[in-house]
Amino acid sequence: MTWSIIARDRESGSLGIAVASRFFAVGSLVPWIRSGVGAVATQAMVNPTLGPAILDRLEQGEAVEAALNAAWGADDGAAVRQIHALDHKGNRAAHTGGDCVDWCGDISGTDISVAGNMLVGGE
After folding, report:
1. Is residue 107 domain-resident?
2. CB neighbours of 34 closer than 8 A, spacing ≥ 6?
3. How many separate domains does the chain show?
4. Per-residue pLDDT for the chain (123 aa), expressed as one digit of tens each?
């Protein structure tokens, strides 16, 4: 079981990210954040290179959806990965691989993104 949340404060532009999991030490693998750039959560069968790769693309001016798609598109294990990202403007992108354990998925709102896997349901 893992779920994460990324949120942006509209007034200050500050980003925050949090993760909860049954696995130990996920704080060293799941959350990635770069001031003035964006935040990324990489979970399920974690590939720790995806967070920095997406943030690098965002820092170079790439749109969040293009940055996320490029990173997971180059990942041989994309089917077992879950990634979601929010850029410094509040734009969002997400990917949940088809082989992630149910329930798995993501929801979003203005300036917020939530994703989880191995959960009881989407509520």
Report:
1. yes
2. 55, 58, 59
3. 1
4. 999 999 999 999 999 999 999 988 899 999 999 999 999 999 999 999 999 999 999 999 999 999 999 998 999 999 999 999 999 999 999 999 999 999 999 999 899 999 999 998 777
Q: Write down the residue that tokens 């170079």 correspond to.
A: 60
Name the H helices within 1-123: 50-59, 64-73
Edge-to-edge strand list for the sheet holding 105-109: 15-21, 2-8, 112-117, 105-109
Apex 89 CA angle, 116 and 6, nearest 5: 20
Omega cis (within 30) before 103: yes
Residue holding tokens 């993104």?
A: 113
91 lies in a domain?
yes
- Cα–Cα dist 93/55, whole Å: 13
The answer to whether residue 29 is domain-embedded is yes
Predicted local distance difference test score (pLDDT) of residue 120:
86
Residue 69 lies in a domain: yes
Q: What is the span of the domain harbouring residue 22?
A: 2-117
